[in-house]
Amino acid sequence: MIRILLADDHPVVRRGLGFFLSMQKDMEIAGEASNGAEALHLAGELKPDIILMDLSMPEMDGVQATKAIKADFPKMKILILTSYADQDHVIPAIEAGASGYQLKDVEPGELAQSIRAILNGENKLHPKVTNHVLAHLSNGKKEKNPLTELTARELDVLKEIAKGKSNKEIAASLFITEKTVKSHVSNLLPKLQVSDRTQAALLAVREGLA
């Protein structure tokens, strides 16, 4: 079972999410938090597989909570679920360590798929969010190209990651084994000085690979 922690300051939102996600055969609600500070506390107490994190919350906002949780539990997955799609909210959340970013207008089925995909190591961004991220990156200053550290095959894998593909899909596309893909991913992340696939995908876009 996928154990989920819901962090949102609106009880109605938590209730609706809890009802839908509990109907999924592979998901259960581990707990609920009404603010970022409570989310941080429950993350340590409940050890959920993934946290659905709102951004605008009292005491500690979603970005601060995400940063604090990732500092204490680097492998814990966090999916931002919010109404904000502008760069001022998206970029800080991704940089804080969020594994995905969805808007609250997302279809329920797509939300469930996003949760499963993130736990499978994929990156999931809402289309509106992706457009803002691309615009932000295209306007940013380019520093030393980190891609020069990668081998030709690692570059191929990175291009596929930027397309949002899973390890299985990458293996089929490049005609290599899934185990080999995992090995390439493990090697290229530290070379790029990023912690997860989402940040690797954003870097690939910034450097013109996608």
* Order of SSEs: EHEHEHEHEHEHHHHH
Q: State the oligomer.
A: single chain
Q: CATH architecture of the largest domain, please?
A: 3-Layer(aba) Sandwich
In the predicted model, the low-confidence regions spanning at least 5 consecutive residues are none
* Class from secondary-structure proportions: alpha/beta
Count of discrete domains: 2
Tell me roughly what share of residues is in helical segments. 40-55%
CATH class of the largest domain: Alpha Beta
- Tell me the number of strands: 6
Q: How would you state the average pLDDT, rounded? A: 90
Output the number of helix runs: 10
- Strand order within the widest sheet? 2-1-3-4-5-6
What would you say about this model in short?
By secondary structure, the chain is of the alpha/beta class. Helix content is 54%, strand content 14%.
What does this molecule look like?
The chain folds into 2 domains: 2-136, Response regulator (Rossmann fold); 143-206, Winged helix-like DNA-binding domain superfamily/Winged helix DNA-binding domain (Arc Repressor Mutant, subunit A). With 210 residues, it is an alpha/beta fold. The protein has helices at residues 11-22, 36-46, 62-72, 87-96, 108-119, 127-139, 152-162, 167-174, 178-192, 197-206, and strands spanning 2-7, 27-33, 50-53, 77-82, 100-103, 124-125. Helices cover 54% and strands 14% of the residues.
